[in-house]
Amino acid sequence: xxxxxxxxxxxxxxETLEALVSRMExxxxxxxxxxxxxxxxxxxxxxxxKALDAAEQKVRIxxxxxxxxxxxxxxxxxxxxxx
Length: 83
Hints:
Layout: H1 10-26, H2 31-71
């Protein structure tokens, strides 16, 4: 997939990938068209995987940060509640 200024849209890429697969499964494409569809599909697959990997990494980072915050939090004791 070529570099562009618009952000990658995972949902749009998946829809395009599904359409490519449907056209290929229909069996009405010439060999050249089928190869072009396959190549485009592989590009989209790699781009989708890259986006999913990045999202997974963000979730892992956020989860680790949340675990650290929870570990440092102690519920209020009697002294904290003015007792």
